[in-house]
Amino acid sequence: MKDLLVLRDLECVKAIAHPRRIDILNAFDKEPLSAKQLSEMLDEPHAKINYHIKTLYNVGILELVEEKIKSGIVEKYYYPTANNVVISRKIIDYTLDPASKDGAVSISDFEDTIENFYNAVEQGALKLDSVLEYRNIKLSDSEINELQKVVNDKVSEILANRKENDEEKKHDLMMVAIPTDLDNEATE
Q1: Residue 34 burial class via C-beta count within 10 angstroms: exposed 0-12, middle 13-18, buried 19 and up
Q2: Which one is predicted more confidently, 161 or 111?
Q3: How far is Cα 154 from Cα 149, in angstroms, rounded to an integer?
Q4: Position 8 pLDDT exceeds 90
């Protein structure tokens, strides 16, 4: 089982958009389940559950993991293909005002980085020790500026001191300080 499945086309999004299909995915725990078991758990007719399972299976969200013959009937057991399912934001990539190329940061820059993150996780190429995450820390604007300058200076130093034969591998490096208490500021 993969850790992450990124839905990258509208057919996959349509398949998962039905509330009953979300219920089906949430019904799985550690064991594969059959349509019969799911219909009993969700108190839904077997035919309806079977239809939803086939839809999820056809787009790769569920996988067939086992077939058992019971009383001459083949019972199929399914399981999600990944622990986590996310929708790529590039599916709905629409704008009336294309981002200018003047070096300004745009939403698509973040989306490209997010997409690269998903790809790295899916391929097992992301090392957990390369992820730094600090949540809900209080820093002033000047402290954020200082931190950004230190990181920028260090990256510039590393690039300037690189030797010609150093092994290079492309990476995205993004530092973003996101205010999280905006509601509090508006009421103060």
Answers
A1: buried
A2: 161
A3: 8
A4: no
Identify the sign of the CA torsion 36, 41, 47, 49.
Answer: negative
**What is the C-alpha separation between 180 and 137, in angstroms, rounded?**
9
Q: How far is CA 113 from CA 17, 105, 159, 181, in A?
A: 25, 12, 21, 24
Q: Burial, 35: exposed, middle or buried (Cβ in 10 Å; 0-12, 13-18, 19+)?
A: buried
Query: H-type helices in the chain, by residue range?
Result: 10-16, 19-27, 35-42, 46-58, 107-122, 141-160, 182-187
Which position has the higher pLDDT, 99 or 69? Answer: 69
**Residue 169: other Cβ atoms inside 10 A:** 5
What per-residue confidence (pLDDT) applies to 18? 93
Contacts 24+ apart (CB under 8 A), 162-167: none
Ramachandran region, residue 109 (left: φ > 0; alpha: ψ -120 to 50; beta: rest): alpha
Q: Which range has the worst mean pLDDT, 19-33, 46-60, 97-111, 133-147?
A: 97-111
